[in-house]
Every structure is written in C-alpha cells, then in structure tokens.
Amino acid sequence: MIDLHSHSIFSDGSLTPEELVDQACAAGLTAVALTDHDTTSGLPRFLKAAGGRPLRAIPGVEISADFSPGAMHMLGYFIRPDDAALEERLVWIREGRDKRNAEILEKLNALGFGIAWNEVAKHAGADVVGRPHFAQVLLERGIVKTKDEAFDLYLGKGKQAYAERRRFSTEDSIALIRAAGGVAVLAHPFTLGLDNGKLRELVQRLAGQGLGGLEVYYSEHSANLQQAYMKLAQDFGLVATGGSDFHGALAPDIRLGSGFGGLRVPDEVVDKLEARRDYK
Hints:
By secondary structure, the chain is α/β, with parallel strands linked by helices. It has helices at 17-26, 43-50, 84-110, 117-121, 131-140, 147-155, 170-179, 196-208, 223-235, 269-274; strands spanning 2-6, 31-34, 56-65, 72-77, 183-186, 213-218, 239-243. The protein has a seven-stranded mixed sheet with strand order 1-2-3-4-5-6-7. It starts with a strand and ends in a 6-residue tail after the last helix. The relative contact order is 0.17.
C-alpha cells in the first residue's frame, strides 16, 4: 500500500517529516510522497528520516496553478529537492502568499473579528501560512462551527475575506516540475469545477504540454469519479496515481494510506511514475 499525497508542518500538515515517516511505517506503507504546498523545505528531513527504513520516500511538491472556474493543483514527483530554479520560483509563489495572507487578515478584521497574526501563525508549524490556518482560528473563536463553514462564509473564492495570490500558468507548472527532473500529475480533478467534456479537453491539452499523470485514487473520489478518471488517464496515456491528501490533525478523518478507510493505491504506480522521469 502506498500514499502519494501528504503534507507536513512545512505547509498545512500537523506532522513533522520525521513523524510522517514514522506513521507511514506504522501503517505498513511501502512508499509515501511528501507533497507540501509550494515548498520543498521539508524534503531533506523527510528523505533522511526514511533512510534505512522499509519505506520508499518520494520527493514531491504541490503547486497551485492559475485556473478558473475551480482550483487546479499540480503535483510533482521525483523532483530534485535542491533544484535551484525550482526553489527560486517557489520563493516567488511564497512571497505572494505572504501578501495574500496580510490581505485576508485585513478583510477578516474589517468584519470585526479582531484576529492577531500570531493566532494564525501558531497553527502553521514551520513554514507556509494558508487559508486552513485562518479557518482554524475562526473555528477556535466560535465564529464558525466547522472549517467547511469558514470557507463557505469567509475564505472560499469570492467570499468576504478571500484574496487572490500568485500562481503559475498550467503550462509553466508542468514545465517547472519537469525541469526539476520530476513528473507532473494533475491533482483531484473534481476541484476544477468542469463538466466531463471540458475536463476531457483540458486533460488532452495538458497531456500535450507534458503532463505525466492524473490523480485517479483520492480520498474524496467516489467510485464513479474514479472510474471516469481512470478512463481519462488511459485515453491520454497518463499514469493513474493516487493519495489520501493527508494533513494529520488538520483533517483527522483522513488516514495516511487509506483516506477515509477505503483508499487503495496500487504499489506499481510508483514504478510507472519513475519511468516517466525526465532525469534519471
């Protein structure tokens, strides 16, 4: 059993890279990928922690791409963690995130919530502050009853405290991952907000730009979605990948390796992905 979509304290997860490795081993996983948002800072610790363990640790990243009407995330697998060009571009993204966070805080406080920055930052662990951390503060304050409500009322796209941030184009996202020796995979396609026909057109276009895989197995994919995405992957010669999107305590119902309990990503996906690498 494997899991190719997980997060640590270096983005919006609650576990350190070392704790993530420990949990993966305890769950009996044979491979796990660390795919923090817009950062590779946790990868050296992650890879070191997996050394000598019965676990294949795959260096990864999750990049937000510019897309409408929904949200697009591009996963990169087998990237070089020390790739200078990749890091330079990710720094540009993170600087834009800092500006966005300041805008979100300003908008929330204009609504009368009186939130201090350190209240948000304490939930972010080692690195990137994101909207889930603002949601956690709203939940703790009793302003909302669930994190979903925080996004529905305040933090979601078009809502009262939403702010845009820097993103790469879809083509640049794929090119950046490939230039760092990695394989680009389109994450959780349902978040794109497209009907079947438009999704098919998009996947065909992305495949032409160098997309290597499609996230078919995912915690929130129904059996029907999984079947539809599998056909898309097969039709365009993409690797059907998958993962839980594990965040630890920030999404406690999702378990590493098994999602909500029924997720099963085939072990052979790792070898298929590695065969697509641009750098060996």
